[in-house]
Amino acid sequence: MINELLIIIFAPLIAGVIAWALDIKGVREAVGLIGAAIPLAYLAKLYSTVLNEAVNYSVTVSGFTLQFQLNTMSWYFAAVASLVGLAMALGMASTSKSSYDWLFALMSYTGVLGVFLSQDFVGFFLLWEMMTFASFMMVIRRNKHESLKYFVLSVIGAYAMLIAIGILYAKTGALDFATIRQALYIDASLGAISTAETALIFGLFLTAFGVKAGAVPLHVWAPGAYSETDQSYTAFFSGALSKAGAYGFLLLYILMGYKLYAALGTFHGHLTFAYIIAWIGAITVVVAGFLAVLQEDIRKLFAYSSVSQVGYILLAFGLGSSLGFAGGLFHVLSHAVFKGLFWLVTAAIILQTGKTQFKDMGGLAEKMPFTFAMGLIAVLSLAGIPPLAGFASKWLIYEAAISAHMPLVAGAIFLGSGIAFAYVVRFLYAVWFGQRPSDLEDVKEAPLPLLIAMAILAIPNLLFGVAPGIVTKYLNRMLGGDIVGGDYYKLVTPTGTYNALLVTIALTIGLAIAGLVYLYGAKVRKIKVTNTYQSGNPVTEEFNLSIRKNFYRPLAEALEFWLKYSWDRFYERLAGIAEDFADSLRQSFYNGNVQSYSWYLAIVLLILALWGVL
Amino acid sequence: MLDWKLILEVIGMLIYATFMGFIFMGIERKAMARIQRRVGPPIYQPIIDTLKLLGKKESVTHGFIYDFGPVFALGASIAALLFIPLAGFRLFSANADLIVVAYLLEVPMLGIMLGAMSSGNPYSAVGVQRGLLTMVAMQLPYGLALIAIIQHWGTFKLNELVSLQQAHGWSILVPALFVAMIVFDIVFQAMLGLEPFDIITAPAEISMGPMVEYGGKHAALLFTQHAVQLFAETAFFVVLFLGGASNLLELLIKQIAVLFIAIFVASIYPRFTIDQAAKFFWKWPTILGIIAVLLTM
Fold first, then answer.
1. Pairing verdict, β B59-61 and A524-526
2. Contact B65 A366 (CB under 8 A)
3. A contact test, residue of B83, B136, B142 with most A CBs within 10 A
4. Which residues in chain B are contacts of A554 at CB distance < 8 A?
5. d(CA A522, CA B117)
6. Looking at this predicted complex, what is its ipTM?
7. CA separation for the pair A358, A366 (Å, rounded)
8. Neighbouring residues of B229: CB distance < 8 A, sequence distance ≥ 6
């Protein structure tokens, strides 16, 4: 009997390999789908077991003991990832025609699950690398430059992590989380690991997880990598894979929280290291939000938006209070479902129209009504309209940020949510409304598997919006305490309340009254888009009535000063300098001149002589 | 187990709020007229306007979302109103706190934008763009003002805010919160859509912006929405800074006081352009907001 945890982790990978090897149309989709559904089924089956006790499994491979554990926290992350993973597989059945995509998409799925379930650094790092490699292979197929940018940053992150693991191993002699945690806890009072070393380990881990989460200034890979791949896969890439970074930050708390507190102390009553994380999150929220508003490409817009939303999670974790963790963990779920939904909608649009620029689109709401409805749910959830899941999680983060006495960080969330409003409306306007370009006349509704995938992600948005208590009850259990009170429909924190069901009812009452006023009025007559007010002038089809380019030009002008500086250009320049340096090194040393090679020999001999060897 | 008293209160409050909202709109027009040495329309003029619009023989539509936008906006305004403690009538206010109400007060904007965008009119689009940029710009000082209040009183619950203020004096009597009130009042001007921040509708520039295509019953819905929203927002201001009210008359007096300040400011200032507004909001109100927040820490 093979252990259930191994099945959960490796089922997608095996399915991916089979789908790749067989490569028969129809079969590869079926195999892929089954492989993607297995983890979700097993996680559902293990739900009640996990609530009582953790499920453990360990295996020894080439001298290392790999430990896997399904506890309340890893179950939560794995369940979110596998939900998005199933939706991704359904979406890919429509959008992907190649077995190559199936192999690597499912491989990264395995990597993500493995990262969440690992209980030691060997497995964690191996599967982390598998996740990175597979997602890199997905991107390189379409765009080499962007994929290499992603790869180099990921490698920097991964090897920063490797160094940190190395230092930890040297200091504690252990690789599994439980022992390291124990050792660091004891060391907090002993102080055998100096403050500088602790700070170094913290900085290295921050780099490693910051890259995956897309924290500013390490976010530059995200816009390129998220857009230059199959958009159904991006649902997983940005919905679940970016959560590995967020999970890493949690791990940081679990492993070294107390030691970091002891070493770095507090700053104005906040934990210093948490304060740093909170500000990284706040800056990410605002910077990526502003960049999202100014994009002209649907994929770029959502890529920056995804970075911005993951910033919320980091910010919430950085607050350091249990309410903050609850808010951040809830946002992990709601971000996964609404952003996954967004990417599937994007996949449908790109599949059916073949266009990605806002300037080429418009008026699609009539052609793809179901996709539009799904897009609208995602928009309402992301913008934080009660009663949807996005609001419940943001509400918790607001409460936590203000209660934790970090007013400026909380101010950043206010600004961030205003910006989120602006960019989702940009998406609504440019894609769905207004005049339809004549080449989009024969666009059809998205194919069925993609529609099912969207529905799978739309339902949690509604369900956990109206009944956020389902999630918070689980989170209470995970975090060990009654952090968010209330029942299934009502959230109660020490300082505030939010009754989602009552808000829904009030909104329904309001809509009913407004609807009655509407019905009472006269009959309506439908007219064409071009039959419109144009300062009293006649309008014909040749006019372009929709503003499709530079929609937020005034904002770009107001931000002119800040937009002069770009991390993207900074990294490009850095890469250029490194390349030039490598070139000049090659030309000056390997110059083909025999005499200079003999000079090198002479210099080495001289050094050896001075050293006293000869 | 229906709570008939609550249901009656809700119905009564909705009728009262809509009616008073229209009267507020009338007061606004009347006061503006008097400031410019005109007689102005009677105070109940907005009600007549709305009834006239409802009585139109035919409305035109650009599709489902075009109809849904104004309905959604009015619905959300009504929902927001139900969660604000209005004098002795607490309605649903125990079930949602400041953050929820602050969000619900912004939702109608999305409804209007949604409908306006689906009309495909370029003037609407410019209006939508300006509206959202105003919102992005005002969000930071707005948030800081709210944070200052929460930090001072230590609660998010509107009911508790009211009782705390009745026990310890109004918010504006606290120096730090007085600064927050100034910030909020500047933002309030934009929330009500009055000069110098009436950039969204800007009648002289972009022919009413988002509302340009709306006529007939859609416009009537938007008028009603504006009335309810006006009532809800002034009540929100009173609850946050002026200690709430123990009866409807007190509430009304405070609401009108708030409204008059807004009208006086609006009648003497010309309109900002949108980029000026953004730069303005990110300068003085934000600085004052940060000061207020730091003073309450």
1. parallel
2. no
3. B136
4. 129-130, 133, 273-275, 278
5. 23
6. 0.89
7. 17
8. B21, B77, B80, B105, B108
Partner B contacted by A396 (CB < 8 A): no
For A219, phi then psi, to 5°, come to -90, -5
Distance of CA A116 to the CA centre of its chain: 14
- Give the C-alpha separation, B255 to B234, whole Å: 5
**What pLDDT is stored for residue B243 in this prediction?**
78
Closest partner CB to A524 (pick from B59, B273, B279): B59
Give the number of A-B residue pairs with CB atoms closer than 8 Å: 258
Q: pLDDT band at residue A2, thresholds of 50, 70 and 90?
A: low
Q: What whole-number distance in Å separates Cα of residue B79 and Cα of residue B103?
A: 11
Q: Would you call B147 and A407 a contact, using CB atoms and an 8 Å cutoff?
A: yes
Mean pLDDT of A279-290: 90
pLDDT band at B1 (very low <50, low <70, confident <90, very high): low
Q: Is A217 exposed, middle or buried (0-12, 13-18, 19+ CB in 10 A)?
A: middle
- Arithmetic mean of pLDDT over chain B: 85
Closest Cα of chain B to A380: distance in Å? 9
Q: Compute the nearest-CA separation of B78 from chain A (Å).
A: 5
For A514, the closest of B132, B139, B221 (CB atoms) is B221
CA distance A448 to A549: 32
What is the mean predicted confidence (pLDDT) over A27-35? 86
Nearest to A521 among B59, B94, B95 (CB): B59
Instruction: Categorize the per-residue pLDDT at B116 as very low, low, confident or very high, splitting at 50, 70 and 90.
Output: confident
Helices vs strands, H then E, count in chain B = 13, 1
Cα Rg of chain B (Å, integer)? 19
pLDDT tens per residue, range B236-275: 888 888 877 778 888 888 889 999 989 998 888 888 888 8
- Provide the sign of the torsion angle of the four alpha carbons A397, A402, A404, A410, taken in this order: positive
Q: Which residues contact A543 (CB under 8 A, 6 or more apart)?
A: A530, A534
The per-residue pLDDT for range B196-216, each reduced to its tens digit, is: 888 777 777 777 777 777 878
**In DSSP terms, which residues pair with A336 in a beta bridge?**
none
Residues 540-569, chain A: which have Cβ within 8 Å of B? 545-547, 551-552, 554-555, 557-558
Number of Cα atoms under 13 Å in the Cβ half of residue B139 = 24
CB distance B145 to B187 below 8 Å: yes
